[in-house]
Amino acid sequence: MKYIVFILFTVMTNAAAQLMLKQGMMSLGPISFEGVNPLIKLLQIVFSPWVFLGLCTFVISMASHLYVLSKVELSFAYPFLSLAYVAVAIFAYFVFREDLNGWRIAGIACICVGTVLIAQSGRGHDEETASLSSDKIHSETVR
């Protein structure tokens, strides 16, 4: 639980990146590769302001996730990324007026419950608690 702030930062930057990418693609309109060099079109997409900002934010999210993975178990950290879906669904409802019907709300509730259960499984199992160094073991056996 010690690294929960970093995990939540990863989740929120991931969600923010998705929202920026969506805004960028909406601002570009329907994509067509007819009569255009696909490489040129791809570069136009990548370097459009919202898409580029979304990709940069996604890189920050991945860097944060790598830091988290260096500190906690993958089976603890990775499920938290499902909270990005929750954040995206809620923000997409308010920002893009996307549908948030009963089925989606039920799914979001299941994701939240599952994430709480996973978070509870990590209590007291931080890297420092879970792994004793040989010095600590040696000092305990000497006593």
Automatic annotation (TrEMBL):
EamA domain: residues covered: 29-119
GO molecular function (one): transmembrane transporter activity
Protein name: Multidrug transporter EmrE
Annotated localization: Cell membrane
Example of a GO biological process term: lipopolysaccharide biosynthetic process
Record field: transmembrane: 41-69, 76-96, 102-119
GO cellular component: plasma membrane
Keywords from the named record: Cell inner membrane, Cell membrane, Lipid A biosynthesis, Lipid biosynthesis, Lipid metabolism, Lipopolysaccharide biosynthesis, Membrane, Transmembrane, Transmembrane helix
Protein species of origin: Mesorhizobium qingshengii
InterPro entries membership: EamA_dom, EmrE-like, Small_drug/metabolite_transptr
Membrane topology: Multi-pass membrane protein
A Pfam family matched in the record: EamA
Principal location class: membrane
